[in-house]
Write a structure and sequence with these properties.
It is a single chain. With 456 residues, this protein is mainly α. It has a domain of 304 residues. It contains 17 helices and seven strands. The strands form three sheets. Strands 3-4-5 form a three-stranded antiparallel sheet. A hairpin with a 2-residue loop joins strand 4 and strand 5. The relative contact order is 0.14.
Length: 456
């Protein structure tokens, strides 16, 4: 490997560090504090620009590998032509696709893809463990607690500098409460997504326990799984189940089952959207129960009992909901989204404009809680087809060369499918979010490793 290749791979890693850790931070009395997005974007552009110069020969050779993502970006750019707010749409397109395409291209040209992948997973694991440790320290020694909507901030005070974590607990109907902490991320769901990614990757890379190294691997895996369970995130739990299923079928040499499962997951995804849309309104609580709790909430606010007011507010939000099974606000968001898809089902209404075009007219400040529905709204059925091709083509490419696969390839396939399942109920991908940059990196790394297998 030449010196340019070594340095090029180093700048890819630098860009990935910025793309993951740049979104980390802490809470203070005013909310979440993290690096300015402009600073993150500048460092990303710097990293990929230098990396592209150093790996220019490999980029020319492997450019075809990222063509599916280029088609997604091109169609999303075309949708700006008929967007009602093309300026906002263009700004969002630039911050999502410029660094995203560049990271994907560098990953596809990476001279050491397996080593880089393991390094990225080690970084994700470090973020999970550091977040768990940070949450534990704050919860053990906090000085101040501040209720804020459905969250509660726990803050430490070091010589006037207040910092800490947010708690967004979940009250189950059986009376069981799980306190969920944000760690170094912006919310408990982000913390759980990091833990879910780490869990799937560790399962794919696991080897028989031998010696101290094996024991250390098992201990780290146990800690990551423990933090995942504490997160209480149903989306991450389902993601991990899906990812572990693909790890199992691929490690046991059944790529055909993996390919068939991709079609099954896609079918179940759109069936879920249809059933949710056709089921009508959300369940409602009884008026008497709501009135009683509202009176208690007013009394708590009047007497200055902030924690009690926060607790009752959460109880009202969870009335008559079986948290394990219900979609809650996602159900309403999906129905509104599906009703709006028909306005421009073929070409969409403009990339990045779901909130403004769909929810703002209803007085709502929310997202579609689904990548598939957001893509349909913004870029239409054509855009969705391109997205599915980009997302799933590495899976089919990796499984078409026979049952023998390296642990790294298995991990990438399992992570792509696990992330696909997670994004059925979330929309962090194709947004300026660290999960999007993990996604585009996996696309590029998967294409690079598939090309290597094909040439063997």
């Amino acid at each position: 490997m030449t010196r340019d290749e070594t340095w090029g791979g180093g700048f890819l890693r630098f860009t990935l560090v910025v793309s993951l850790t740049g979104f980390l931070g802490y809470y203070n009395a005013d909310g979440f504090v993290s690096s300015p997005p402009v600073a993150i974007l500048v460092l990303q552009i710097l990293g990929v620009a230098v990396g592209a110069v150093l790996l220019r020969a490999q980029l020319r050779t492997n450019l075809h590998a990222i063509m599916p993502l280029i088609l997604v970006a091109a169609w999303a750019a075309a949708s700006l032509l008929w967007a009602e707010d093309p300026t906002t749409a263009l700004r969002r397109w630039l911050i999502v696709f410029v660094p995203g395409l560049a990271i994907c291209a560098l990953a596809a040209a990476d001279p050491r893809p397996r080593q880089t992948f393991r390094w990225v997973i080690a970084l994700v694991i470090a973020i999970v463990l550091a977040s768990g440790l940070f949450s534990g320290i704050v919860i053990a020694f906090w000085d101040t607690t501040i209720p804020e909507n459905a969250l509660r901030y726990f803050l430490l005070d070091l010589n006037g500098w207040k910092f800490g974590v947010a708690e967004g607990g979940r009250q189950y109907e059986i009376g069981f409460y799980i306190p969920r902490y944000s760690g170094l991320t912006s919310n408990p769901n982000s913390m759980s997504l990091f833990a879910g990614i780490a869990t799937i990757a560790l399962a794919a890379l696991a080897q028989p326990i031998r010696g101290r190294k094996g024991i250390g691997f098992a201990l780290v895996t146990g800690l990551v799984v423990f933090l995942l369970l504490l997160s209480g995130s149903r989306a991450s739990f389902i993601m991990v189940v899906a990812g572990l299923f693909f790890v199992l079928v691929l490690r046991t040499g059944h790529p055909r089952i993996a390919r068939l499962s991709v079609f099954l997951i896609c079918t179940l995804t759109f069936a879920l959207y249809f059933v949710t849309w056709s089921n009508g309104s959300d369940p409602q609580s009884s008026p008497a129960e709501t009135t009683e709790l509202s009176e208690k909430y007013a009394e708590a606010v009047e007497s200055g009992e902030k924690y009690e007011a926060w607790r009752i507010a959460n109880q009202v939000a969870n009335l008559r909901h079986t948290e394990v099974l219900e979609l809650r606000e996602r159900s309403n968001a999906w129905r509104i989204a599906i009703q709006n898809i028909g306005k421009a089902w073929g070409t969409g209404q403009g990339f990045g404009l779901t909130e403004e075009m769909v929810y703002a007219p209803h007085g709502l400040n929310m997202s579609a809680y689904s990548v598939s529905l957001s893509v349909l709204i913004e870029t239409g059925i054509i855009g969705l087809i391109f997205v599915l091709i980009a997302w799933l083509s590495p899976v089919f490419a990796a499984t078409r060369h026979g049952p023998s696969m390296s642990p790294t390839v298995i991990a990438i396939v399992a992570l792509l499918m696990g992330l696909f399942v997670h994004q059925v109920v979330d929309n962090s991908v194709f947004r300026y979010h660290w999960a999007h940059f993990i996604f585009v990196y996996l696309l590029g790394a998967g294409a690079r490793l598939s090309a290597s297998r094909a040439s063997e």
